[in-house]
Amino acid sequence: MQTLLNKIKSFRYSELLLGVCVFLIGLLTIIFPQTAVRIIGIGLGIVLLIIGITRMVSLFSIKDESVFFTLRFIGNLFFLFCALGLLFFSGGMANLICTICGIYLIVDASTKIFPMLTRTQTRNSAFYTKLILSSLILILGLALIIVPGTIVNTAFRLVGVALVFEGGSTIVYAIIRLRERRHRERHAKGPIEGRFTDKSGT
Questions:
Q1: pLDDT tens digits for 178-196?
Q2: Which of 43, 45, 102, 163 could cysteine-pair with 86, CB 3.0–4.6 Å?
């Protein structure tokens, strides 16, 4: 295994290929964000399903009849339900997660905004900064509830943009390194070839 990793690392174009792969993944994520959500959801669902099945098998192998067995069984059942939901309804689960996060953000921002507006306190720059940040969190929470699909697509597109920049910079850096390596190899071969030609000439 170690020799295989060393061969991959020593491969001249490995960094360039990695940059191309990252660039293409980012580009596809920007163009098809919903497909990226489904693929990630299916992959995560498969992993969680395997973990849930192994946990359920290990639970039944213990043969425990206490209350903790029932609680663990319900917990593992819920775990398997979430895994199947991600596996078959990845888009719907993403929207559900966005809605839950939106409700949490709205509650959290409201508990900060209302006391600030009702209580008498010094209205300095720190007060207005906290009020603006809490208001932005409230708006984000509302957006997560009203348009969860748009938020998910936008988030994945931003991830795609980051991957495109990362892949593009990796490609440029790999090309520069390849050119430098070829330049060093040419200079290293030059004097040696010259010596051989001198000896053969004499």
A1: 888 888 878 776 555 544 4
A2: 45
